[in-house]
Every structure is written in structure tokens, then in C-alpha cells.
Amino acid sequence: MARSFFLVLFAVATLLHGSAAQTRHVVGDSTGWTIPSGGAAFYTAWASGKTFVVGDTLVFNFTNGQHDVAKVTKSAYDACNGASTIFTLLSGPATVTLNETGEQYYICTFGSHCSLGQKLTVNVVNRASATPSPAPQPSRSGSPPTASPVPTPTQAPSTVPEPAPAPSTVPAPAPGPSAGPVTFTVGDNLGWTVPTNGAEAYTSWASGKTFRVGDVLEFNYQSNAHNVEELTKEDYDSCNSTSPLATYTTPPARVTLNKTGAHYFICGVPGHCLGGQKLAINVTGSGSGSSATPPSPSSPSTNPSTPSPSGSLAPPPQNSGAASLGLVGVSATLLSLAAAFFY
User: Fold this and answer.
1) For position 319, what pLDDT does the model report?
2) Is residue 189 situated within a structural domain?
3) 104 and 28 share a domain?
4) How far is CA 330 from CA 8, 23, 25, 67, 321, in A?
5) Number of domains the chain is built from
6) CA angle 249, 250, 251 (to 5 degrees)
7) Radius of gyration over alpha carbons of the chain, in Å?
8) What is the CATH number of the domain that holds 60?
9) 1-33 pLDDT, tens per residue?
10) Kind plus residue range of the DSSP H or E element containing 200
11) 289 within some domain
């Protein structure tokens, strides 16, 4: 009976550990994402005391057509400037995954909503540290930093037998930082343009690189001359931009790789995809060490049509509330059953 009791406790501990893996923060709780009566101090107070960890999500509840959610730089946040955003989500509820450490800034770009207080800043930390830390500087080459070895102290030789050494009081060196998300500049110095050697340019660029969930693709291009569209494989093969999964129009376009598998990108300006402005990559799971070989694109067969303007793709709505609450309830139930069984 005692063995069964401990097995139940082990299952409860496992559930509690899983419940801490990710937290969904409903921005503003019951107030949602709107113009607060107390100004910007309302969302500042909401965020204070909370711990935002890489992998957590923010859920913005708002009425479509009356508000939006735009991630911006600090300077744009301070000035309430919604002209150049990192991404914009138009459909509520909008879910944003926190996939990098450091300060993150969000505003509503409708009219004077931001200046009236509809703005939020959060500080995201690594789960291992559980305390705020500066955002890591990603490597452009995709190689994580390596820690310098710490020399091991040696003792002077002695001819007199010595007793067993006492435990060392010198603290062990702290483990080096884990590799965070990496930002890849598409095409490096070439940027995002129509290459002279066709699609081979971006195929060669992606060859040998490892793309993982959480990494970021940065597309640098001239404004109003190009764009970035994510497509299905069929539309990518035929350079068909009539139904993109997502469209980015403001450079530099930063695309966070939030799921594994093949991803396909083109420029939707007529003729550019057929000229070779297209990129296919394969994304592995977080922490995977395998090389990411780009999928083999098929030869284009049809001419692309003029892209229809669209904003960044809004993620599918999810239920509000913290994901850990349900598991905590299950854990409490299991503890009750275990106690009843034992006694």
C-alpha cells in the first residue's frame, strides 16, 4: 500500500513539473487589451511582480476592427510610433509567444490609443535563471558562444606524506550560458533581392545552417521594392502569391521560426520569385544539433500574380487563462485520492 502511495505522489510531482513548463498571461486580465481608464500605469501595474519566461505566451483579448497588437522597438514604444512595427496582429484574441529574452514592447496602433495608455512592456528571462537578465546578443553566423576553460589550480610537490586533502572551499565555476535564439540575416551581404544567379543563391546560403524553433530570419530589402511572403509548398513551387500564409512589407522583416518542418518564403512582387527571390528552409526542434538542409524546391511553372496586401498572420485563438491552473487542479485531485487510498 505504501509503495502505491509513493507511486501516486511521483505521478503528482511529474504533473506539477509539467505545469510549470509554460504560462499563458492574459494581458490586463478581465479588462483585456483596451484603452485603460488609469492610463499606461494600468498595464505597468499588471506586469509588475509577474515573471515572464521564454516559452510563455501573452494573450491579448480585444474587439476586431477597434484595436490591434503591434510589437515595436523601444524608441517607437516611447514615441507611440506605429508606422514601423516588428509585426502587427489584427485579430483577437491574439497570442504572442515570448521567444527571446530582454525587454519586449507592444502598443495599439489605432489613433491615439497608445498615447492614452494602451501600451505594454515586459521583461523576458530564461527559465533557468528565473530572474531578469539582459537580452543575449545573437550570433550572425549561427554558432553559439563557447565559454573559456577555467585553469585548475595545482599543488607544489612535497616529499612529506600528506593526509587526505580536505574538501575544497573554492566554489566551482558557474556553467556557461546556454545558446539562445539566433538571428540569421537572409543572404548575408546580398540581402533580400533578385539574385543574379537565380534561386541557387539562397539555396547555397541556407545550405549547412541549422535553423531551430525560436530562431529569427531577418530579411533586409528596400522599402516598396520587395516584400516577404510565407507560402505553402505548392504555391512556393509555382511562385503563386495569391494566398500567402503571412505577408511582411516593412523592412527589415523579422520572422520568428515558431514551428518545426519546412518553411517557404518568396518575394510577392511580380517576376521576383521567378527570378530566384525565394527561400526554403527546414526547422528542427529546439536544441537539436542536426544540420538543417533546405527542402528541394520544384521548378516554377506559372507566373505569380500581384500580391494582395495583408498584415502579419494572426495566430489561431486560444483559450484565456494560465495553462498551469488546470494541471494544479488535477494534481490536487490525485493527492486527495492518494491520501484516501493510503488511509
Assistant:
1) 45
2) yes
3) yes
4) 12, 16, 20, 36, 16
5) 2
6) 120
7) 25
8) 2.60.40.420
9) 555 555 555 555 544 444 456 899 999 999 999
10) helix 200-206
11) no
Q: Per the domain annotation, does 31 fall within a domain? A: yes
Quick one: which of 50, 49, 43, 52 has its CA closest to 101?
Answer: 52
Strands 119-125, 52-53: pairing kind: parallel
Verify that 33 and 122 share a domain, yes or no: yes
Round the average pLDDT of the chain to a whole number and report it.
77
**Looking at the structure, do residues 185 and 275 belong to the same domain, yes or no?**
yes
Query: At 84, which amino acid appears?
Result: S
Checking DSSP bridges between strand 69-72 and strand 87-89, what pairing results, if any?
antiparallel
Give Dmax over CA atoms of the chain in angstroms. Answer: 87
Domain region containing 213: 181-282
Q: How confident is the model at residue 341 (pLDDT cuts 50, 70, 90)?
A: low
* Final residue in a domain of this structure, among 231, 252, 282: 282
Length of the chain: 343
pLDDT at 123 over 60: yes
Rounded Cα distance, 52 and 105, in Å = 13
Which domain-ending residue is among 86, 105, 127? 127
Contact 220/307 with Cβ under 8 angstroms?
A: no
C-alpha cell at 50: 509577474
Same structural domain for residues 189 and 274? yes
The angle that helices 2-19 and 323-342 make with each other, rounded to 10 degrees, is: 170
Percent of the chain beyond pLDDT 90?
58
Phi, psi dihedrals of residue 119, rounded to the nearest 5°: -150, 150
Say how far apart CA 208 and CA 206 lie, in whole Å: 6
Let me know if residue 68 belongs to a domain: yes
pLDDT of residue 10: 53
